[in-house]
Amino acid sequence: MVVHSSSQDQRRQQALARERQASYATREATARAVSQQEYGCQADAEAAAATLRAPQSAYHAVEVRVEAHPQSGPGRPSQQQPRVSTALRYGVQVTRRERAEVIARRPQATGCVGLLTQVPPVDARAQRAGDVLRAYTAPQGIEQNFGFVTDPRIVKSLLLKKPERIAALGLGLWLAWRRWRLVERTRRGHVETTKTPLRGWDTKATQKPPAFMMMTTFAGVLVLKVEDQRQFVHPLSTVQQQYLRALGVPATYCTVPQRGHRDETGKSRSQPSPG
After folding, report:
1. pLDDT tens by residue, 146-168
2. 10 Å Cβ neighbour count for 9?
3. Bridge partners, 63 (sequence order)
4. Which of 17, 85, 91, 163 is 20 to 30 A away from residue 181, measured at CA?
């Protein structure tokens, strides 16, 4: 199944243009340096030509040939007899051309996503290509955060041998990243609903604030507890308060003590104290 994405198509078209330009510039610089030199023997010229034929480019082909340049002695040539060559010098002639068939095929493939699926194309279980793609990419937001687990520093620090412990760790990570993504989704939904961007990196406004941005902003927040009273060591900044409003979390969430009470069933529950 092949699905075309217009957003990916635009980005990849721009990347394709940059790749073509970089390919041409690289081949042009190398060819100019080699073709401007003359060689005293054919073997040296052939070796230089081989250096141009070796690199492979997806967008440009290079045709290289070695040419002999006869050298004659000093003085004006005679009109009665041909000029006699006293030596031979060799040069490398380079012709560059674009691979038209490749360049014509690349734009057609840009923006296309190929999927292998067991969903049948016809019958009652058939699904549209777009629905299959959305189902395939749905867990991507969480799975892309698991890249840190493959870091050798993280892997070497895990000393789990029993399968049930490894499964428990996986479940804990999955739940943590679900909450991480929920924070990100809530903030972005607030921006989309209110049409008010949040402050991002380098004080620039952003329409898609990542969850990591918020975690780093609140990394230095300290709450001081004296008996039953809690207060921030330093007042929350304007940006921190803005982030909490985007999440729908009151600033007093960390400072209002929680107390427990029992309901009709005798089970203990907690609720914020009045005020």
Report:
1. 666 666 777 677 788 888 988 89
2. 15
3. 95
4. 163
